[in-house]
Amino acid sequence: MPGENLSRDEARERAELLSVDGYEVVLDLRSAVDEAEPADGPRTFRSVTTVRFRAAAPGASSFADLIAPSVNSVTLNGRDLDPAVVFDGARIALDGLASENVLVVDADCAYSRTGEGMHRFVDPEDGEVYLYTQYEPADARRVYANFEQPDLKAPYRFEVTAPEGWQVWSNGVEESLEGQTRRFAETAPISTYITCVVAGPYHYVTDSYTRGDLTIPLGAICRKGLAKHFDADDVFLVTKQGFDLFHEIFDYPYPFGKYDQAFVPEYNLGAMENPGMVTFKEEYIFRGKVTQASYERRSNTILHEMAHMWFGDLVTMKWWDDLWLKESFADFMGSFALVEATRFDQAWVTFANSRKAWAYRADQLPSTHPITADIRDLEDAKLNFDGITYAKGAAVLKQLVAYVGRDAFLEGARRYFKANAYGNTTLDDLLSVLAEVSGRDMAEWSRAWLQTAGVNTLTPVVTCDAGGRVTELAVVQDGTAVPDQPTSSAGRPHRVAVGLYRLDPDGALVRYARAEADVAGVRTVVGELTGQEKPALVLVNDEDLTYCKIRFDEASLATLRSHLGSVTDPLSRALCWSALWNLTRDGLMPARDFVSLVLAHAGRETDVGVLQMLHAQAQTAVTHYAAPDWREQGGKVLAACALQELRFAEPGSEHQLTWARFFAAGAATEGDFQLLLGLLEGSARIDGLEVDQELRWDFLLPLAAHGAIGEDVLAAELARDDTASGKRHQVRCLAARPSAAVKDQAWAAVVESDALSNALAEATIAGMQQSSQRGLLAPYTDRYFDVIERIWADRSIQIGMDVVRGLYPSLQDSQETLDTTDAWLAAHESAAPALRRLVLESRDDLARALRAQACDVAAG
Fold this sequence. Notes:
The structure is a single chain. With 860 residues, the chain is an alpha+beta fold. It contains 28 helices and 28 strands. α3 links the parallel β16 (214-222) and β17. α6 (347-363) crosses α8, α20 (711-720) packs antiparallel against α21 and α27 runs antiparallel to α28 (833-859). The chain is globular, with a radius of gyration of 28 Å. 52% of the residues are buried.
């Protein structure tokens, strides 16, 4: 990987020298279906690229990017260059440039098994081959020669020769078909990382969107094996709703012609915003019954990627420092559009409870960074697709809307698009237009929110008189202090709503007073609430206007312990749950107390997305934050609670399905296992619960992990579900079995071999790491630290990230493991910064777990 890196300084220098007029990319993909695997080396396809570009300094030198097993020829301005001399495996040296240049590169590029570049997937169900490309941040160079940086935009023409009977799509519309060769229309100027090719015997459904004189052809694509499950009508519905909203509020027509959306196998991301050819993970096609939360997540992703057509594709950041200019906006607009345009009008509840939890975790890691990050190179860029760039950035934009007003925010966006269409921008370009429309000092706002790291904590302090009236309500802000990062230690300016709640005679916890205030500095008095009756609960950041952690005064915390399930407003309730989880993660509330709150109140949670999040958090609390000697008991009480709620839930409801999955995940006793086996075999039944294929695999995983079933049962289940999804499930279950030999096999499959695809490597890692098998996993701590530097050097960055994160010995939660981690970090100060960051993040999670365990031990 180091030879494939590109620094910001190199990119800046190249952008100052070069400007690109256009690409013609010719790909021959017929080798994808060759039956015989190559005897030596990877399977390859032919890629011929013609690049027309200009140089500001004739005679200067530069380089093009290409990662390929071999290069057949390189021609620059009619002059043949020796590939053995100019190509080093990642770059093509270009010397003696003219004012106007034509570069032609004929290469054999490799198909990928890791989801990077041209990914090749063989469907085990029918043997069909499917291809798609995935490039962000810099993997287009694995498919064609280019200048791989976002600010060297250009138009593209693709020509693809594919096997007989295949369909092919790219960013532009298909202009011609001659034999097996398709030519696609030239694109608008776009960056390399959002070009795209999808090819194979895919299932294809069409529709169209019309608004006034504008008509956009729509397509929805998936593997043939998933066609029977594909609800394309709902995908098209959300797509049209999104286009209606974005055309109305952006006042800039969709600029890229057609709009295809492909759901593809073994995808590393949720989705990718390639203009005209958006790609999604195929798990968004649901093979079994799922809750509305799953449909909401899919719809959010559809709208997130659509927002990118403007934020990211039409207007693109110059370098990855300003990744937030596309990802933060798309993340915000995804939830905004859900609420404004679709049936998911409670999406801000999901945002507050789920997306922001991701941000809070990332912002408290040692690798935290300002939203406008310092991205030195491509490895930095890859790791910065994180909770800060996405979810914190989106939360900060929600604060910005409260700060400048909705109308000013949207008017700023409109002017930004029109001023910078098809160009590249930096932070200053956006701030200037927002300052212009709002009259606010955006430089000060930016310094506080975009250019500092860390999360502030807001705590209410309430004083009441003898008559039970509020004499003063103040909000106290704790500043942040992050080593080696700029922070807002005096506290950021927040626009917040403060809500006062009381218990009604019928037991409901309802808001009776609310005030908005500008909180700044260490202490702010909210004068509008003086004189109100004494509250049972004070909720700072009611309605979730700002980005912060919130705390409670003692009276409010006591109220929540008894009445959390009685909070009538779903968003307010979600904010309370979020705050209580942050207390637990911070080692301020014992894990067993959080579990008790879940036991007492989760059964009354109406929002199924919040309920699913509570289940995940409760499992984390028991697995990582509880005192070791209480872990087993905590797991059993959670499983017992889940079973009780499963039996009480409305038959056939999404809540019943959610509790069934939670019960299976926490199954801990012989009785639990017998019930799961009975539900699988049909000898047991819970009224209304349909055990479809996906739920069967959910039940089989804990049975495999606890040794209640063997390899023969899993083989029989794969025969029943001989699909790509079934294979991933089986691989996960096989690696979960409680055997030293099984763990050795799983380790060897991931660490000592690169034969597994990205999806199967991920499934193997997930199966291997079972919380009930700490003893079996203990020998792998030293082995982990022995291999990770080699893995990082030898594997693709995606596989490297999966292994370093996934196999870190977090279940060996002891000071000894922490010391071993520190010893590795001390001995490997010169290791790749991105690798060290991953290890530091895992170390921080472990240290946090040990602090939380100490809190829980003290409570026990």
